[in-house]
Design a protein that fits this description.
Blueprint (H helix, E strand, L loop, with lengths): L3 H65 L4 H9 L12 E7 L14 E9 L2 E15 L7 E3 L2 E5 L2 E3 L4 E3 L2 E5 L2 E3 L2 E3 L3 E3 L6 E3 L8 H4 L7 E4 L7 E3 L2 E2 L15 E5 L6 E8 L1 E5 L6 E9 L8 E4 L2 E5 L4 E2 H4 L21 E2 L2 E2 L3 E3 L3 E10 L2 E3 L3 E11 L11 E8 L5 E3 L2
Parallel strand pairs: 4-7, 4-27, 5-8, 5-28, 6-9, 6-28, 7-10, 8-11, 10-12, 13-16, 14-17, 15-17, 16-18, 17-19, 18-20, 19-21, 19-24, 20-25, 21-26, 25-27, 26-28
Antiparallel strand pairs: 1-2, 2-3, 3-29, 3-30, 22-23
């Protein structure tokens, strides 16, 4: 027979077992919850680390882009293809970018155009975006400070030269029976007379070379030499909206004539734009009345790759004399167009001229800008008047272009 006291003791032991079991369950639950919380905290910390790493990666990628992006055609092609940015060196970060040209949509064609860059960095599940506008750095050549800059000799015979910003020749200057109304400098000898301004030795000055104007020869509209009757441009108007030698037009008025050794004669023409002449034949020349004005002060008026023979006149380009209307629709002059042939235009190149070769000059040539000659300049019974440009802009061809800078105020974060 079981006694009451023994029964009560069994109940107490059963109760204790239940309490111990309950405590164990609670401890286990707390442990599991703690592990889950710790795991969640770790995942949160990892996510936060990824977010910070991605943001840092986007900023670092922009810095790397500024250091590594080049501005020549090959470099800009790679930039446009999305392959120009090197790895950051952190395998946890993946970088992607897009590059667009806000000027004409063509990243590779013009080393002077800006680039809109969008960078996306990924680390784990986190992404960060950064956008900025980059502009090429342009360092003006010292040649841009002169009216006339010559890479070889300058020989003046019975000629008048006027250049308020100066004449510099890398080899020497010789004036015979001439009047030189310009400060004259050269590392070599300066002989003859008559010099009306200062004369003295000067440091070597680089003239623009082929690399400085190379991009002009790769963009713009091409005019086939065979489309120009007898190789002579005469009594014609060439503008961004008008091309008498084909359907190709260029909004900046850049026209390229690849002569392939054939002679090209330019006489009595009006050009609004930039004319680039490549490989002209030995009989090529510019003569008569000439009116050339670039569409932008940042563009040269004329780039001539070869010997340039000039025999131009101070007489105005006359519509009545040439029986040609030089300001039809598509070619306004001072904002006006008409259909008559009663107007006249100053015979002048109202922009800078780059000649990759020698220049033989006769007649009268007015230039507003800089005349840069990589070879020698010979003037015989000539008048050469070179006045400062109306605008102080850096002209393409007169600056070293390399690398990029960020346009202030254009950097912004992109929410992913």
């Amino acid at each position: 027979m079981t006694t009451p006291s023994a029964c009560r003791g069994g109940q107490r032991r059963g109760t204790a077992y239940v309490m111990i079991l309950a405590c164990a369950v609670i401890v286990a639950a707390l442990g599991t919850g703690g592990l889950a919380l710790l795991s969640l905290q770790r995942r949160g910390a990892a996510t936060s680390d990824d977010a910070r790493r991605a943001a840092h990666g986007a900023t670092a990628a922009l810095e790397v882009a500024l250091q590594s992006f080049g501005t020549n055609r090959t470099d800009r092609t790679l930039i446009g293809e999305g392959t120009a940015l090197p790895a950051l060196g952190d395998p946890r970060i993946t970088i992607e970018y897009d590059a667009t040209d806000p000027v004409d949509g063509k990243v590779s064609d013009d080393p002077n155009d800006a680039i809109d860059l969008t960078i996306r960095a990924t680390s784990g599940a986190a992404r960060a975006g950064l956008a900025a506008r980059l502009v090429p750095t342009r360092t003006p050549l010292d040649a841009a400070n002169y009216g006339i800059i010559v890479g070889g000799k300058t020989i003046l015979a019975t000629s008048l030269v006027r250049a308020p910003r100066g004449l510099h020749a890398e080899v020497s200057v010789e004036a015979v029976g001439s009047r030189v109304d310009a400060p004259v400098t050269s590392p070599g000898e300066i002989d003859g007379s008559e010099y009306l301004s200062t004369v003295g030795a000067g440091p070597s000055v680089r003239t623009p070379g082929g690399a400085h104007v190379a991009s002009l020869a790769t963009r713009g509209a091409r005019i086939m030499i065979g489309s120009i009757p007898s190789g002579t441009m005469r009594n014609v108007v060439l503008t961004p909206a008008l091309n008498p030698y084909g359907a190709a037009l260029d909004p900046d008025g850049i026209y390229i004539i690849a002569c392939d050794g054939a002679d090209l004669v330019i006489r009595d023409v009006r050009i609004v734009g930039t004319l680039v002449v490549l490989n002209p034949g030995p009989g090529s020349r510019i003569e008569g009345a000439i009116s050339i004005t670039p569409t932008s002060p940042e563009l040269p008026a004329l780039v001539w790759d070869g010997l340039l023979d000039v025999d131009t006149t101070s007489t105005d380009l006359s519509e009545s004399t040439t029986s040609t209307n030089f300001n039809p629709p598509g070619a306004p002059f001072l904002g006006a167009v008409d259909s008559d042939a009663r107007d006249a235009y100053p015979s002048m190149i109202a922009g800078s001229v780059v000649v990759l070769g020698d220049v033989d000059l006769r007649g009268t040539l007015f230039i507003r800008g800089t005349l840069a000659v990589s070879g020698s300049l010979a003037a015989t019974q000539a008048r050469l008047i070179v006045t400062p440009p109306a605008d102080a802009a850096v002209v393409e061809g007169f600056a070293d272009v390399g690398g990029f800078d960020v346009v202030p105020g254009t950097v912004r974060r992109i929410l992913e």
